[in-house]
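Extended Data, panel c. Modelled sequence:
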Amino acid sequence: MTLSYRIRRRVASASAPPRRPASVSRRPLHPAPCYDRITGMDTQLPIKRPLWTRDFIIITLGTVVSTFGNAVSGFAIGLLVLDYTESVLLYALYMICYSLPRIILPLLAGPYLDRFERKRVIYTLDFISAGLFLVIYALVRLDLFQYGLFLLLAMLVGAIDSVYTVAYESLYPTLISKGNFARAYSISSLIYPLATTIMVPIAGVCYRTIGIAPLFLFNAASFLVAALFETRIRAVEAHAARRTAEPFRFRRFRSDLKDGLDYLRRERGLATITAYFFCTTLCSSIVGTLVLPYFRSLGTTGIDQYTVIMSVATAGRLIGGVIHYRFKYPVHRKFQIAIFVYLTISVLDGTYLYMPFPVMLAFNLLVGILGVTSFNIRISGTQSYVADEMRGRFNGIFQMLNILGGIIGQLAAGAVGELLPARPVVLAAMALNIVCVLFVMLPGGAHVKKIYNVDV
């Protein structure tokens, strides 16, 4: 064997890849990298995480139970006040008392919820709600109803609901695995219309047969069950672990609140979304306030039509939720889809009162489907974008402005509705909503796209 031959063999064996032992499996332990010819980089396929984790199942079950109870209580309390007072004015005053705490408390709750455990706040409020509705059951059962007392109870329920909403919306994203936000919120959007569809007719039958008191007992039981579910949530809330070392004094609270407002001012995309939804809630509340009186003015036929229309709109929301659970919209088109939805809903809501009844049904079915699309794109985008330690403050500010917009719209509808027919006022409100899309949302589109056009 010559020297040159031995040298060539050593070079060849050194450059050859090492032989794999026979006992080692040839299947890679991780997804194989893919070469991207455009970027020139190796990419790796994302690992699909399950949506239905233990904590997500618990929060979903708790939400279903409490929402079913809320659907019953909303129906029952309204009937109770009307039965005892027989006055629309006193009923309206009751609703105002319920809404008053919801104007300011979400703003004040945000800094607290960004410092302490949100799950503890949620199940504590559900335990309190269970006890509160048990008290209402006892008052009704013993025939101790007093209107002044129920105004105080309305304010207490409104305060609990306002804080609970901010806490829930701030905790919920932390229980969703990465990449499943859109599917999770599609499930969330299904719960309320499903509860309304099932429970309100049942509550109506119970009201006519066994009376109103058992409905409050059912609601107390539903909140108790929901609270017991929520105590089993195991998720560690990192924001609380980082910040509870500092004492929560008023000076710190004021600083936290200022940080939340400054954060919204800095984040132009979030500020644009918040401003638009304040405007659209105002316009939509005008429509919602005037539609029932319009159909009521048509007599018994009008009331029947209104009932069917609302049922069809609810069916649309259910269909929209199923669509979002099963299909994903193109990520790079989400902002354009949202703008199309906002404009289309404005046209449909503004004009359907002028249409024949079958067209009304078709329009409201579409509004239900598109409404879920609007909700899903907005909430999945914002909740995945906002930093966890700022989420309570952002949700508090967002909720406060939405509630304020709704109350302003209701007052405006009440004032204008006394002077003008309902249909042109509804049309004008939706025309104003189109103006808001064009002059609030579109100018901030470059910033909103960073929030909406994300694969969540």
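Residues 54-85 form the longest helix (32 residues). This feature is highlighted in the accompanying rendering.
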